[in-house]
Design a protein that fits this description.
By secondary structure, the protein is an alpha/beta fold. The chain has a single domain (3-332), classed as UDP-N-acetylmuramoyl-L-alanine:D-glutamate ligase (3-Layer(aba) Sandwich). The chain has 10 helices and 14 strands. It has helices at residues 3-10, 57-66, 81-92, 139-153, 171-184, 209-216, 222-232, 272-285, 290-304, 315-323; strands spanning 16-21, 23-36, 43-56, 70-78, 96-103, 110-117, 124-131, 158-163, 188-192, 204-205, 236-240, 246-250, 256-258, 331-332. The strands form 2 sheets. It has a 10-stranded mixed sheet, with helices on both faces. Strands 3-2-6-7 form a 4-stranded mixed sheet. Helix 2 (57-66) packs across helix 8 (272-285), helix 4 (139-153) packs parallel to helix 5 (171-184) and helix 9 (290-304) crosses helix 10 (315-323). The longest helix has 15 residues, at 139-153.
Length: 337
């Protein structure tokens, strides 16, 4: 048994990870194409089922729970049917929802993905409809959120800030996370949709290639990524690169590449970034090195993209994936420092 698989079996369980940020309901509306409408040149879709799953920060929490960790979720939902359903689903997954704020002035951030096909054919996503709080979030709710977050952090083994640019994650949340990290040495990890510069001073971040390219330009050199890590004050930067795997930049080391695991043709990439940061954080909370935590996250991300919809990787699946690939396929680049 490797150090990594031993940690997943024995040390992931019971680690308390606080996840603060944008709580999203990921809905998948499945339908069968019946005929063409007489009203417009569009298909008529006969509804079959609607599946609601945790998304955003909630999906990161679900992934922590699936691996035996204790996720504590901090965020907003509306006092509406989607909010109630999401909290119920999360509770059934053993996610602590005590610090989620429900309010009548909000609607639960919801992404509705419509999947359609003719009968017996494979359904494909044809459109996505987003419901968000365009009017903004009231100041009193931010005050309550920060209070809840500070309380949750008191017993955290790791902290995740999940920013999908829906308003829950801001500089106030980051300040609380940094203060707690300074006092307790708890790792703080950031997953931000195109706003990394708003979250400096974290332990690590997990941007995807597109987000890094928005900052540095197309196909940035490794030296530029390392400079970005230093500029933001991160000890590590784990860049996810789709079917090209991941690259880890960390202080005192050369960049380390992790090849994608399994099929190079993913079925559904929805929520894979949430899986990556959830597993990466749980690994660091369990005392793993950045490299070992990144390796676990790489395998977990490769597992969930082979599942339809927003998904999680279980401990058994992750261990099986790691044991099926005994050779270390990571590669260290020549020093860029």
């Amino acid at each position: 048994m490797s150090v990594l698989t031993e940690a997943i079996r024995t040390r992931f369980s019971g680690r308390r990870v606080v996840i603060a940020g944008d709580v999203v309901a990921d809905q998948f509306l499945h339908g069968t194409i019946a005929r063409v409408s007489r009203e417009a040149p569009v298909f008529i879709l006969e509804h079959d089922e609607t599946d609601t799953r945790p998304g955003g920060a909630a999906n990161a929490a679900a992934n922590v729970a699936a691996l035996g960790g204790i996720p504590v979720l901090v965020g907003f939902v509306g006092n509406d049917s989607n909010g109630h359903l999401l909290k119920q689903t999360l509770s059934e997954m053993n996610v602590n929802c005590d610090h989620i704020i429900s309010d009548d002035r909000l609607q639960t951030t919801t992404k509705v993905r419509v999947l359609a096909a003719h009968e017996y054919a494979q359904r494909q996503q044809v459109i996505r409809i987003d419901y968000a709080n365009r009017a903004g979030i009231h100041d009193d709710l931010y005050t309550r959120l920060r209070e809840n977050f500070a309380t949750a952090c008191e017993s955290a083994d790791a902290v995740i800030i999940s920013d999908y640019n829906y308003g829950a994650a801001d500089s106030g949340i980051m300040s609380i996370a940094r203060l707690h990290s300074d006092e307790s040495r708890t790792p703080v990890l950031v997953d931000s949709r195109f706003r990394l510069h708003d979250f400096p001073g974290a332990t690590a971040a997990t941007p995807n290639q597109e987000e890094v390219e928005q900052i540095l330009g197309k196909d940035p050199a490794e030296s530029a990524c390392e400079s970005l890590r230093k500029e933001l004050g991160y000890r590590a930067l784990l860049v996810t690169r789709g079917n090209k795997g991941m690259t880890l930049y960390q202080e005192g080391s050369s960049p380390q590449h992790f090849d994608a695991v399994g099929s190079r043709e993913p079925i559904d990439v929805t929520g894979a970034g949430d899986t990556v940061i959830g597993v990466f954080a749980l690994g660091l909370a369990s005392g793993l090195t950045f490299a070992d935590a990144a390796k676990a996250a790489n395998h977990a991300g490769s597992l969930v993209v082979m599942k339809r919809g927003t998904a999680v990787a279980t401990a058994d699946e992750l261990i099986a994936s790691l044991e099926a690939q005994p050779a270390d396929r990571s590669q260290v680049s020549p020093s860029v420092q």
